[in-house]
User: Fold GST N-terminal domain-containing protein from Exidia glandulosa HHB12029.
Amino acid sequence: MSTKTDITFYDTISNIEFKTVSLNTWRVRFILNYKKIPYTTVWLPYAQIATTIKALGAPPTSFMPDGRTRHTVPTIVDHTNGDKVVTDSWTIAQYLEAHFPDHEHALFPAGSLALQASFVKDTLDAMGPSGLVFSLAPLIIPHVKRHMDAPDVEYFEALWSPLFGGVPLDSLYTPETWKGIEGAFDALDKVYAASEGQGVFLGGTQLIYADFVVAAALVSVKFGVPGEDGWERVAKLNGGRWGRLFDAVQPYCQNDW
Assistant:
């Protein structure tokens, strides 16, 4: 039986209109809205994420090169299951699928879990030119940084700069950035083309988790870099496929359900 708020959802906050453009937290927010799970968001400045999430008792999501633990968002607390704490977008997605089953809104149709895991890891989250998130980062990150308060800027720089060889985040965007973005979307377009004529999603008319991973990247561009050298350009790529995909998931863009 649902309580007034089944889930407390921890997300980042910045000074943009829609509060957050985190590619990782949007994956979970989409799922909560899609499954209509009652939840409340706790908005965290970047500088407060690690201490807050660690205090919840959440396990680290990764480790720094010097061995220090990293505690990140998204993180949820499930009040229907003894205040269970779950962190990491992939882990949370599987948890919500198992504990809030809904055949009509299944994220992992039978037999698709391993395929989606491979697709997300090797095509969307790959740390290199083939990865969609990696290719979009030089476009999104400098813009997001400009909407942060000073303490968060320092934390954000320390978090992301090492992933790009220590380069200052303001210098990530170069004349080659769009070449990488278009290449990543071209590769993704070939996958989506297999469902051409059946619907806008990977499964045709059925949304699956991998669609929300792609949609989270689109939302990050739309809300983080909304102009003609950002979302307007992305939306038109590949015959307008990504604009249509965003339109299809827009009903699940609420802040709290």
